[in-house]
Amino acid sequence: MNKLLLIVVMMTVWISIHLLQVEEELAMQTLFQGKYAINRAAHAAAQQLDPVALGNGVLQIAPEAAAETAARYLQVNLRLDANGLPLPGSFFKDPVEIVVFEVINADRGFPYTYRSDAYQYEVTLQRPGVIIIANIVYPRAFEVLDEIEWHIKGAAELVTG
Length: 161
Description:
- By secondary structure, the chain is of the alpha+beta class.
- The chain has one domain (2-157).
- 41% of the residues lie in helices and 22% in strands.
- The chain contains 3 helices and 5 strands; from the N terminus they run αααβββββ.
- It has helices at residues 2-46, 51-55, 63-78, and strands at 97-104, 112-116, 121-125, 129-137, 149-157.
- Strand 2 and strand 3 (121-125) form a beta hairpin.
- The termini are far apart.
C-alpha cells in the first residue's frame, strides 16, 4: 500500500514538473512570436514616407500612415481585430495594447536617442524611425506558471537606398 501511494505521489510530481516545462516553452514561443510581430510592424511603419515632404526633397515618415500600417501588421501577425482583441482561434486571450507608438522624424535631429524610463528602453536612431512598445499577456495553458505580462519593444529606421 505504501509503494502504491508513493507511485501516485511521484507521478503527480512528475506530471506537474512536465507541465511546468511545457508551459515555460509555450511562454517563450509566445514571447518570440510577439517580438517578431512588433519588429515587423515597426519596420513596415518606418517605410511609410510622407509624399508631401518627399516632394520637397525631405525624407520623412507619415505618422498616420505609419500607425495604420503598424496596426494592420500586428492584426495579421497576432490574429487580432481592429481593436487589438484576439480573433476566434487566436492563441491570445487578452487584448494586445500598443502603449507607445512614436514616429521620430528629422525635426528631432540625428543621431537621436529615444529613452523611456517607464519601460526601461533606450535606442539610438541614425535617421527617421518608429518606436513601438506593446503590452502582451501570456495566455497560460495549464496555469502552472504565474501570470506573465511583457512590454515588448521594437524600433526600426527608414531604409534609404
